[in-house]
Structures are given as C-alpha cells and as structure tokens.
Amino acid sequence: MHHLRFSKYDIKYRNELGHYLRDDWTSISDVGKVCEDELLTMEEYERVERNYLDALLDIIQTIGISHITIAHIDWHDFTQNDFDFP
C-alpha cells in the first residue's frame, strides 16, 4: 500500500524534535485571527484547502487510483457561533 501525506507546514520551519516554529493557522477556527502578521479570511482558508483537494484529485487521476482510504481524520462539531469572525 502506498501512503501520501499532505501538509501546509514547511519542514524547514521545524526544530530537531519536529515542532513547527511559526505562528501559522491550523484550522477553520483560526479564521478571523492574525497569524504570521496576516488576518486569516474565510476566502484564504478556502483557497488553501481547495489547493489540497485539487492536488489530491490530480494525483488520483494521473496515476489511475480507483479508491482511497482516509485513515486519521479529526471531526469537529463547529457551528457559526464557535467562530469569532470580525
């Protein structure tokens, strides 16, 4: 079985223990917050997430994968009230 891992966290910003050292956003709950001196908007969040999906679809189509298994997914029960949007 082959494994792929997608990550927006550049390994050059990790320390010797693998800890990410930048103040970057990690989830939709960060929309409306400032990370790395920039306000994370819903548009930017969706753009980045769409890029991951597009990359995955390109790989699937290019190498002819007929099915995938998603093994470690975090589910959250978010509502609009959970976010502090500006």
The number of helical elements comes to 1
Task: Tell me the number of strands.
Answer: 2
How confident is the prediction overall: mean pLDDT?
84
Residues in helix, %: 25-40%
Q: H/E element string?
A: EEH
Strand % is: under 5%
Q: Give the strand order, joined by hyphens, for the main sheet.
A: 1-2
Query: What ranges have pLDDT less than 50 throughout 5 or more consecutive residues?
Result: none
The shape, in one word, is globular
Please compute the radius of gyration using only Cα atoms.
16 Å
Structural class: mainly alpha
Cα distance spanning the termini: 45 Å
**How many strands, what sense, and barrel or not for the largest sheet?**
2 strands, antiparallel
General description of the model:
Helix content is 26%, strand content 5%. It has one helix spanning 42-63; strands at residues 34-35, 38-39. A hairpin with a 2-residue loop joins strand 1 (34-35) and strand 2 (38-39). It is built from one helix and two strands, in the order ββα. It has a domain at 11-63. It has a two-stranded antiparallel ribbon.
